[in-house]
Amino acid sequence: MAMRRSVATLIRNFRNVVPRSDLFLHSHATSFGFKEVREEEKSKLVGNVFSSVASSYDIMNDLMSGGLHRLWKHRLVSKLHPFPGMKHLDVAGGTGDVAFRILESIKSVRYRDVQGVLDGFGETQIYVCDINPNMLSVGKNRAIEKGLGDEQSLVWIEGDAEALSFNDLSMDGYTIAFGIRNVTHMEKALAEAYRVLKRGGRFLCLELSHVEAPLFKQIYDYYSFAVIPAMGELVAGDRESYQYLVESIRRFPNQETFAQMMADTGFEKVEYENLVGGVVAIHSGVKL
């Protein structure tokens, strides 16, 4: 009971906002964590967060998840089923973590297959799209460190998930990992994903989601609100950005709601897989 009260107090102390039911009464209001801000302000605020945490983003992911984010991303890529010659778009993937895994998976296919079998495939292109130039800069530097600085298959693009610069029906796959909850209009981001995918193209979203088991939820909430911001302050020198990241998870739609949003966009075969009891979910859908 004491832990339940302490968790509830932590969350309540951070909810310095209008009641959630009132949030959407103003057509130009949206959420930035637990705060209400004008729509035109959110992208700038989110941009400030990721500019601040870019240099420590990957090490903080390791610390916050105990390294599990690597397994989650591996699972995401395995569900994508990458293939040689594919045109793939990874959105909000500035540090390259997902893109590198996709490229590695494709290269492993090439090495396994018999010479000549893949001659009919075109050139593989993996587009890494991120709205934040600081995150892209980290990704490009990581590519150089991995010996991929001259890799022609990797294309780095500064762009907005809600207004992609790619043509209709141009991509075989679309992934977004830990990014869609930060956009201002998720419906627009989903619509853009649907637009750029070819018929038969796959949409995959890896996102921190909602835990339902009561005891586990109490432990997870305590860890989120008491430990992660303190860790952000210690490692990245930025408590506020990690406070926002924790709050943004709680504002993200639950698994069933987000699956319905995907279906409403037009995706078929919509499903999700919970990992670690719902701490993370992988949503998938196909454009038919």
From TrEMBL:
Pathway: Cofactor biosynthesis; ubiquinone biosynthesis. GO terms for cellular component: extrinsic component of mitochondrial inner membrane. InterPro entries: SAM-dependent_MTases_sf (IPR029063), UbiE/COQ5_MeTrFase (IPR004033), UbiE/COQ5_MeTrFase_CS (IPR023576). Belongs to the class I-like SAM-binding methyltransferase superfamily. MenG/UbiE family. NCBIfam families: MenG_MenH_UbiE. PANTHER family: 2-METHOXY-6-POLYPRENYL-1,4-BENZOQUINOL METHYLASE, MITOCHONDRIAL (PTHR43591:SF24), METHYLTRANSFERASE (PTHR43591). This is 2-methoxy-6-polyprenyl-1,4-benzoquinol methylase, mitochondrial.
